[in-house]
Write a structure and sequence with these properties.
With 197 residues, the protein is α+β, with helices and mostly antiparallel strands. It has one domain: Methylpurine-DNA glycosylase (MPG) (3-methyladenine DNA Glycosylase, Chain A, Roll). The chain has six helices and eight strands; from the N terminus they run αααβββββαααβββ. A hairpin with a 2-residue loop joins β1 and β2. The longest helix has 8 residues. It is globular and about 45 Å long. The chain binds a DNA duplex (13 and 13 nucleotides) through β3, β4 and α6.
DNA sequence: GGTAGGATGGGCT
DNA sequence: GCCCATCCTACCC
């Protein structure tokens, strides 16, 4: 495929795509293309973080300086710092004022792979480049500077890519609360997920 | 193949 | 002071 066409093929997902229940957005993002600068990857694994009784969600403790983006309008990036070293990318869902976001946990590298390899020299395989929430932000060059960014325009966007995918569902990874809630979504059979089912 | 433990710092009680 | 939506290395099958 012509490399230059990757970054512009497929329409940018509009705000209406994100202004829906968080679980629908988490499922709908699978097979879409995340584009940042001169890198792009297909989303193959997501997790939904809900409002209400979902105590695993950052928004469960209420509106603070950190979590205000999650309570804001849909289609924006929530990027948080974890374990003193890593940034993780979420996309805000639901209507303005209602909390809900989708963590991007793994991508299949599509474009700008040589740039990703430079940013992650320790990766031992193509899968290793982006098979985790901290890995994919490093490979794509996404940092907390993008916290609050509008992802329906600008240099960080999500585009249409695959028309449809088969989805498998599991509990979320690495959390203490609500461990058995089925809110992790992966493309069935995809080899680029963070963990096999 | 699998796993235990360390690195490292912001957020919140 | 404790928790944490992680990653990497070392070491052991």
């Amino acid at each position: 495929m012509d490399p230059l066409s990757v970054a512009t093929r497929g329409r940018i997902l509009p705000r209406s795509f994100y202004a829906r229940p968080t679980i629908e957005v988490a499922r709908g993002l699978l097979g879409k293309l995340l584009v940042h600068g001169k890198t792009a990857g297909m989303i193959v694994e997501t997790e939904a973080y809900l409002g209400g009784e979902d105590l695993a969600a950052h928004s469960a403790r209420g509106l603070t300086a950190r979590t205000k983006v999650i309570f804001g309008p849909p289609g924006h990036a929530y990027v948080y710092f974890i374990y003193g070293m890593y940034d993780c990318l979420n996309i805000v869902a639901e209507q303005d004022g209602k909390p809900g976001c989708v963590l991007l946990r793994a991508l299949e590298p599509v474009w700008g792979i040589h740039i990703m390899k430079e940013r992650r020299p320790r990766a031992h395989s193509l899968r290793d480049l982006t098979s985790g929430p901290g890995k994919l932000t490093l490979a794509m060059g996404i940092t907390r500077k993008s916290n609050g960014a509008d992802i329906t325009r600008g240099n960080l966007v999500v585009r249409e890519w695959l028309p449809a995918v088969e989805i498998a569902v599991t509990p979320r990874i690495g959390i203490r609360h609500c461990q058995d809630w089925p809110l992790r979504f992966v493309i069935s059979g995809n080899q680029f997920v963070s963990r096999r089912i």
